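Why do we care about 3D structure at all? Because function follows from shape, and shape follows, mostly, from sequence. That is the central idea of this module. The next example makes it concrete: a single protein chain, its amino acid sequence, and then its structure expressed as tokens.
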Amino acid sequence: MKQVVFITGATGFIGTYIIKELIRTTDFEVTALVRASNSELAQARLYREWWEHRDLCAALDNKRIHIVCGDITSHNLGLSDNAYKNLSSSVSYIIHAAADIRLTAPLPELYKTNVQGTVHMLELAHAIHKRKRLKRFSYVSTAYVAGSRQGIILEDTLITPRTFLSNYERSKFQAEQMVLRHKPTLPVSVFRPGMVVGDSKTGYIKTFNTIYILLRTYFKKSIPLIPLRAGFRINLIPADCVAEALVSLTLHAKAVSHTFHLTAPHKALPTSQEFIEQIRSWAALHCNLKLPKARFIGLPLPMLRFFLTLLDVLCLKRNRVIRNLKLLAPYYYENRIFDRSNADRLLKQPAPAWQDFTSPLLQFAVNRGFLNRSARTVQEQLVYRLSKKHLPMRYHEIKDKRIFSMPNNKLIHDVTRAVSALKALGMNKGDCAGIAGRNSIKYLILDTALGLIGAVSVPVFVNISPYELRRTLHQTRLKIFFTGIDDHLRLAEEFKDSTLFISMTNCEYQFEIPSSGVRCWDTFIAGGARTKKSITRQMCSSRLSFDDAATMRFTSGTTGEQKPVWFTHGQLRQMAETLNSLFPWKLRSQPVRYLSFLPMNHVVEGILGMYTPYFAPAKVDIYFLYNFEELVPALKRIKPTIFFSVPRFYEKVYETLSSKGIYKSFVHTRNKIMRKFLRLLLRKAVLRRTGLKHCLQLISGSAPLATSLARRFRELGIEIHDAYGLSEAPLISINRYAHNSLGTVGTPLPETEITIAPDGEILVRGPQVSPACLLNNQPDQDFLHTGDVGVLNSKGELVLYGRKKEIIVTSYGKNIHPLTIENMLKAISNIKEALVVGERKPYISALLWTDAKNAPHSSQLYTSIIKLNSRLSHPERIKRFVLLDYDLSVDNGDFSHGYKLVRQAITRRFEQIIDSLYQGTHIPFKNLIYRGEIAKTS
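And the structure:
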């Protein structure tokens, strides 16, 4: 007969790790008590809570874990008589891990869960014991039932302390007293964990409380004094060690009727000074962060608490840091030893050394910004952040050079109304809704509302052609299409039977089409009924899974037609958190200002502008720029702290810079002192005039950044960090702050694996890869075939050569990577864009673009190309070229919406020019400045 373990607190941190350990080390079945109104909601809640633990989700799918809907605070756990009877006749082990762990909650609330809940669990234990099935009742207490007692704390004794340090301790003490009274009649084991920290191997933790509060304060440099005594030992124990010990002892026959301190041996614990010094060393090495030297307060505990109380009173407003330190100071001031006689006698596995698990603890905490883990999607996280005063978020819109700010309560209200309006229109989980609007708060409201009801948002390019839009509407079967573009609204009549068009403007549509074909924004939002049920309560009852589709995006279409790819709620959250963790700690822990100006349907811009900020451990201000043409004045006004753009922005900055006499003096001077002075002057001028002087990290993506351009900025002391990603996998690798390797796109993101196929194609596996890309991705089903060609250098950094489909094969059968050559050509002074051609031709030619008024002299261009050729192999060398007046644009189809050259479109448009290069003929072309041929001897 299968052994069944019944566990409470399955959604809690300790409970989760206990179940993981049961699944890993036993073949027992697990029955988890989950508070929910029905089994569907209970299962959805577990999937949400365990979304980062795929082993538990798999066990839930495989029926290794069963769910019982109930509540420990209710009689018979809130179960029917039959359900309670079935439970008591099937269970062999009980592990009672549920608890209300709020330190300062009112005693009646804590008693309800911690004391009355334990009473009900003991009643169940007796019911099982009467059937002679109960093998163990394991109760998870806490080492801090010792209250204020000092000295040696024995395991098998429970002495009432003089005082308790919190209401939580008092309630747990009384619960443990009750459990111990049942030792003569039940096979009881009691477990008292110390200060539980994250997983010893991964650092994973859900709630950053206790020691983490001190660490967060120290990392933010907002505490001049450390409220510990230097020699006191800190009672740390990793969660996985607690779970391993508890499961092992629960199954150990000799553990019956005993209490166990689940702590590390006293001498193996770090002193306050040792722990802080290791933190300082780690921060300097891994975060490039110089933390202040620790100054420990040697005051007696009562005096320290009085001192902190006084500071709190003297503050003009409530100081969260002081309040937390005052609350937790007693736990940092332990002058006692927790006896481990029972644990040492029965446990074989010693606790890991604190030096070994400190690094993963800190890495995980810093990566997650010390923000508590939750089971919220990115849209739910936004609503949560908006509703909190701590770490406030504020949204603004820049339109017609004016800034409009929206109060958080108004934003939550509009999201709530939009959710209601969408439901009134029949939008349900899994339905698709398109959005084609300029960057605005209204766009944010729609994306958030769609995410909250489980609908799939389909962002569409604002300047999409009618042909592409028709194909998109057919392909995605949009139920609703929100757009602020008149040309889009003209298609409403054509698709009136399948798609409802809603104008994102506040006025009725003015073209002569039936009014039923288009609804305006005001009409749409008015359709949302006012509801007393808060959006927060709706989130709590959500049936959404992290594996549900959240958004559908389209590929850039540089080498063919655009294709739709989709991402799940879990992926959006994972990408947002991961991207946030890549920024320097200094940037993330200080007030963040971000200007969103790239199209919101751009997948990285969507993640940066709408999702990543929700996980920043700081005050955040997001500005949406409605009109791209107002970028420069907006940057000067907003002064963002993080900046992401396509390479074209940096190219324009350099074009302006290179025309200045002071820059020419900097380039040509050989005087080191003068060069250093000019460098400093230019750096400040560039950053000030672009509004980027407060940016700690400049990021370039979506298209290749020329190494020569990045090197020219580096000469001025300005670092541009190149990144690499695809629509199918938004961010794959990036150059990190203080580790910027020019000529590469950096190292892979966490949990991301990059391999190079025999033909040079880059293959990627990671959590950011769209599931749609792997469905028909043979033969390497686990890897995304990116279509890009590159290599990994000796440092594990990725170097891109170009698109696999764009490889030029000459008539001699030589394979040429055009991207490398094009970047070299763009490095020539005043060359704005370059395209290399030569497919099935005997040699390589180039199309070059410049501003006619700044066109390089023909002799200068000849010399530059000859010099460039000397660095290339013979088949790669440029034989002929044309210089054209720059007229490339997205509207002409020359660039993708991500500002990548669309090679096929350009070669079609300039077909006659290309033919003339190889035929030696001359044809009139209005944009032609001059053409040239490099002599064979060159």
